[in-house]
Design brief:
5-stranded mixed beta barrel; 7 helices; binds hypoxanthine; globular; Rossmann fold
Length: about 280
């Protein structure tokens, strides 16, 4: 798509949303599998179905609703994506990350991304929360390929602090004050949708990954390009392939996030006012 078309699409989507909400959202949240409950924290919510937003894709996975929720959490103006887009659904990478560009256009300065992920680090336990310290983009897709949109950010964006040190420090302090165990590690993002083989997981452990999932990296690349500060969390929904002597399933992922969502909710609620 030509540059001007992309910019127009971002602006049209943003202006549609602006017409339905009061004020500028400052913090964006993208909620992963089973973590949509965080949307229930939003006060005075305005709910907008993706299908009504111009140029927005529509999500197709079970456990992912498709709506934006805009309102306040702990006195801060937030815009929250309940349900995200994944490469395995067949969306091109620039479509997966399009909503982040719309958030930026609406005024978002900080983005909190959450996902469910398989634990690669054998010291992790199912149900742990992991603060994302860094990521490895194993999707071999980059949403910034093509002519650079200079209006949005630089041609060669720095990724040396993709996940803000400052925000991670805040997250650790809040977790400690709540008595919540918080792992900190590297997220590796893959295309999916098949889960990994045990050999692939051993390889990824050798490469320095602590948790594996099928989202997040494209969104974070676009956010950093746009100068948005990022904070990320993985809910370790299962141990990755080959670690335990049992098959992996989406049901297990959903069951774990369901079980752990209150802990996650409390942590996010504690962090938002401090961002
Ligand atoms: N692998 C990839 N993606 C995932 C996993 C996993 O084990 N668990 C949740 N999302």
């Amino acid at each position: 798509m030509a540059n001007m078309d992309v910019l127009n699409n971002i602006r049209e989507a943003a202006s549609f949303i602006r017409g339905k909400i009061d004020g500028e959202p400052e913090i964006g949240l993208i909620l992963g599998s089973g973590l949509g409950i965080i949307a229930e924290l939003v006060e005075n919510p305005v709910v907008i179905a993706y299908e009504n937003i111009p140029h927005f894709p529509v999500s197709t996975v079970e456990g992912h609703a498709g709506e934006l929720v805009v309102g306040t959490v702990a006195g801060r103006r937030v815009i929250l994506m309940k349900g995200r887009f994944h490469l395995y659904e067949g969306y091109p990478v620039e479509v997966v990350s399009f909503p982040v560009r719309v958030m930026k256009e609406l005024g978002v300065k900080k983005l909190v991304v959450t996902n469910a992920a398989g634990g690669i680090n054998t010291s992790y336990e199912v149900g742990d929360l992991m603060l994302i310290k860094d990521h490895i983009n194993f999707t071999f897709r980059n949403p910034l390929i093509g002519p650079n949109l200079d209006e949005l950010g630089p041609r060669f964006p720095d990724m040396s602090e993709a996940y803000s040190k400052r925000l991670r420090q805040i997250a650790r302090e809040v977790a400690e004050s709540q008595g919540v165990k918080l792992q900190e590690g590297v997220y590796i993002g893959l295309l999916g949708p098949s889960y990994e083989t045990p050999a692939e997981i051993r390889m990824m452990r050798t490469l320095g990954a602590d948790a594996v999932g099928m989202s997040t990296v494209s969104e974070v690349i676009v956010a950093r390009h746009a100068g948005i500060e990022v904070l990320g969390f993985s809910c370790i929904s299962n141990m990755a392939s080959g670690i335990l002597d049992q098959p992996l399933s989406h049901e297990e992922v959903m069951e774990t996030t369901e079980r752990e969502k209150q802990k996650f909710l409390r942590l996010i609620l504690g962090i938002i006012p401090k961002l």
